[in-house]
Amino acid sequence: MNEYLSTAAIPSHVDVLVVGAGLTGIGMGHHLRKLQPGKTFAIIEARDAIGGTWDLFRYPGIRSDADLYAFGFSFKTWNRDNAIADGHEILDYLQETIDENDLASRIHLGHKVVNADFSTANATWTVTIERTSDRERFDVTCSFLTSAAGYYDGDEGYSPHFEGRENFRGEIIHPQHWPVDLDYAGKRVVIIGSGATAVTVVPVMAETAEHVTMLQRSPSYVLPLPRRDPLPIFLRQVLPDALVYKITRYININKATLLYNASRRFPKQMRALVRKVNVKALPVGYDVDKHFNPDYAPWDQRMCIVTDGDMFEAIADGRASVVTDRIVRFTESGILLESGNELEADVIVTATGLNMVPFGKIPLHVDGKESILPDHLIYKTLMVSDIPNFTFTIGYVNHAWTLKADLVAQWTCRLLAHMDRHGYSTATPTIDDDPSMTRSPFIDMGTGYVNRAMHLFPQQGSRGPWVVAQDYKGDRQMLGTEPIEDSALSFKSAAAPVLAEAR
After folding, report:
1. Which superkingdom (predicted)?
2. N or C: lower Cβ tally within 10 Å for the chain?
3. Cα gap 126→138, rounded to integer Å
């Protein structure tokens, strides 16, 4: 699909430079065209394909873990039958968005941003880009920089040390680096992990493998969700697609909010409900408490979704099983466990997680000095203190990623319009030294891949625009309707500095 994207040289200067051509970057492109039609912009992508996550991951069964009526763009209807969509369906949806918004000429694949430096005197970013085909580097300038790079390290997934790994005679695969020619038909497969990737891969591999074992150190919450949502299928018989999408999107976003809030307020009751669902889906006498009853409260970590209960069906049919135990070491023929049992395997899949990195690992400098991100605070969930003319998108942990991406793109366009109206050349979040302001991690969850990385990210504060609340409803007000002017957002014009007062 990507042969239609731009092969032209990147302009030497653009008003807005977008880093990343995944879902976030493509959405940002739409909003810039619609809300800021006079601005020049370019979308830079290090990979040779659009799609970000949806092109990077190629493991069997790759799909969304949120329904596309919430995960889709606010401006483009999702009218396919599958609400939980396969990766290729999402890529097709993104390509349609590119075509419908004439974005192809703005997307430059195979170009990696390696450095960015903001000049206060010139109110301009100088961005160093490396062309991946020949490693040639060159500079592009922009007035405004926005990161649509997400938070996954696209270069390497997380692989903990396993004693004896080198002794295993079979294949060891990490889902982030899935070989296109991997043949596991008729083979014994062990998948290490209990997160979203593991529960996705298990039932698909179980269709042709001799047997698939999901080996977990501790359980996760797992809920079945129908691949097809009956509501929009019914509504399409009497209503146009755009209205069906709007209605279903509203309902499904509120359902997700209700589930999350109920989990936080009534953890015992929600634990019991999830357990009841699991008991019903699994064979009589199955040890649900051992394998599917975590020792943490619902939504202390993300819940895992299995479409149409496919993993439960694979377990019930005997094609898959779950083992809850700890690894002692790899052996020549499998994995030795603390219980003394050994799991024999021909293929081991290390679904052990991902590495998180801020802003595509781009070093951000201001006047030649590198910004040490953990020393900074996050402003209104999308800017960083003391870094001018820069926004970023990192989605919700309790909602669909795209909900935040839409809000960030719209707010960024509002900010650009505000700066144009008042003749401002820079906008910088600033915070006074205040000993009463406490700091905490940007994302506060019990998930391993989050905890391993939060020391790399800017932090959140304890009040005002420095709080990151993971609250879609609150963000809709803060980013969608509240004035751009704010006492914590410092504006400067080319002529003289201006500090905007709160209205």
Report:
1. Bacteria
2. C
3. 10
Q: Per-residue pLDDT tens for 217-253? A: 999 999 999 999 999 999 999 999 999 999 999 999 9
CA distance 266 to 263: 5
Separation of alpha carbons 212 and 478, rounded Å: 47
Residues 125-140: pLDDT tens digits?
Answer: 999 999 999 999 999 9
Among 124-128, 331-335, 362-366, 398-402, the range scoring the smallest mean pLDDT is 398-402
- Provide the CATH topology of domain 165-350: FAD/NAD(P)-binding domain (3.50.50)
pTM: 0.93
Query: Given 3.40.1350.10, 2.40.37.10, 3.50.50.60, 3.40.50.1580, which CATH number is that of 11-155+356-499?
Result: 3.50.50.60
Buried b or exposed e, range 14-43, using 16+ CB within 10 angstroms: bbbbbbbbbbbbbbbbbbbbeebeebebbb
Q: Distance between alpha carbon 395 and the CA centroid of its chain, in Å?
A: 6
Residue 187 three-state SS: coil
